Amino acid sequence: MEDIPLTADPTIAAGFSDWLNYEAYVTFFDRLLAQMGQDPIKAMWFIISHGGWIVFVILAWYAFTELFLDYKQGKTISKKKYVLLAIDVPRESEQSVKAVENTFAHLAGAHSPATWTEKWMDGKVQDCFSIEIISMEGHLQYLIRCLDKLRDLVEASIYAQYPTAEISQVGDYVPSVPSKYPDEEYELYGNELMPVKSDVYPIKTYVDFEHSLTGEFKDPLAAVLEAFSRLGPGEQAWYQMILIPIDQKDFGVKAQAEVSKLKGDPPKVAKKSMVEELLDFPVKLITGIGASLLGMAVGEKEAKKDDKTMKMLMLSPGERNVIEAIERKRSKIQFLCKIRFIYVAKKEVFSKPRILQSFIGAIKQFNANDLQSLKPESKKVGVSSTILLMKERRNNRRKNKLIEAYRNRSPGMGLPPFHLGVDEIASLWHLPVVKNVKAPQLKKTEAKKIEPPINLPFG
User: Fold this and answer.
1) Half-sphere exposure (CA, 13 Å, Cβ side) for 74?
2) Number of Cβ atoms within 10 Å of the Cβ of 356
3) Cα–Cα distances in Å, from 198 out to 230, 246, 344?
4) How far apart are CA 334 and CA 205, in angstroms?
């Protein structure tokens, strides 16, 4: 094929100088593609020398800023001191799950948005919490991991709802098992949970498990505790939720957009520029005068109002319930969340189906087909049996990444976080209502603490 001199064609030159000339662009790209087939290096040099270098500069700048931010934030995070707090369940407590919802609403006070200087100069990141339920060979424990500086906030939040609870600092349990797989002694299974629909849709909450007449509460979390308590020697199960305090405005806008879509409201039109307003003014003026002369202005407004009313009346009861559920979730304080589950055991006692089916079955109690469902993700993060090529090697890589993310309580590794309201979080993780939970190895406080009488003699 004859070499086509790209710069010699006056039509091509016009394509760069006159951006309204559509035919010039088409001709240019046709000839450029032809040149790519003959001499790709020459064609690429032509693109770079005629402005294409700007793309590479933008990409390089983006990569540099991301690496710089990661470096600054990494240094900041490495200096932070964390504590792991164990919570012993009050033996005599009959508090409802509402108490735990109030606790999480209190923890939302840890939200502290970074200014531009704090983000780029100091590497400031939003502090988060990790709430966990673990079983060490059948012994259950509730845990909260937080920054040392937030310990007072966590303890105050819990004591405000559970005055007789006991909170103590403990060592991390994750290093008790290997961090690299395959391992000669241990086997591991792990996964993350993700929402099936947009996270503006809520899962079932504890209110849905209360009898409408008697008010009796059937704790859905009791199934998880029961399964965890059945583990034997050499087995461990870990359930972790990462909570990231956030600004509430963005979620409110997102939820309102979904409600408007379900109602059939027209999407909001972007505000026009001053030039567009000036161009539309004569048309609006003529239309308005004509409508006034024909007596149509009021009628059109009434028609639009009636049309909106008819759309609401046409909604089925189920559709109205969905809208009400989204609006109810929007009214709650939101966190960005990640949910992880790990089962690790010695190879001779490892039995994934026994614990996994019980855990997933318990989580499915919170699913609603018309609203939200949580499911384990196995395409990118979780250990999967459906991988075809290099199955064992790829699954081992996933195990290593998953346990690293779990150990670091990382909000960034794995799947993107999603929104959960404080009532949803409390439903998925709450101190049990002791009279409804019979797990025999659940750690409880042994004695009730009371204040000494004020007239106690001294000396």
Assistant:
1) 6
2) 17
3) 35, 18, 31
4) 14
Whole-model pTM: value is 0.76
Residues 337 and 276 in one domain: no
The reply to whether 241 and 107 lie within a common domain is: yes
Angle at 155 between CA 149 and CA 158, to 5 degrees: 145
Parent domain of 290: 264-324
For the chain, the domain total comes to 3
CA distance 61 to 69: 12
Angle between helices 249-263 and 317-330 (to 10 degrees): 170
Tokens of 57: 């500069």
Q: Answer whether 166's CB lies under 8 Å from 388's CB.
A: no
Q: How confident is the chain (459 residues) per 10-residue block, as mean pLDDT?
A: 46 46 58 62 68 76 82 77 89 77 92 80 84 93 94 93 90 92 92 93 91 79 89 93 93 91 70 63 61 52 56 76 93 95 93 86 91 88 80 88 93 92 94 62 50 44
Tokens of 426: 């409390």
Write down which residue in 324, 351, 371 finishes a domain. 324
191 sits in which H/E element:
strand 186-195
> 141 pairs with which residues across the strands?
134
Among 45, 43, 47, 34, smallest CA distance to 2 is for 34
Residue 256: inside a domain: no
Residues 385 and 421 grouped into a single domain = yes
**Do 282 and 144 have their domain in common?**
no
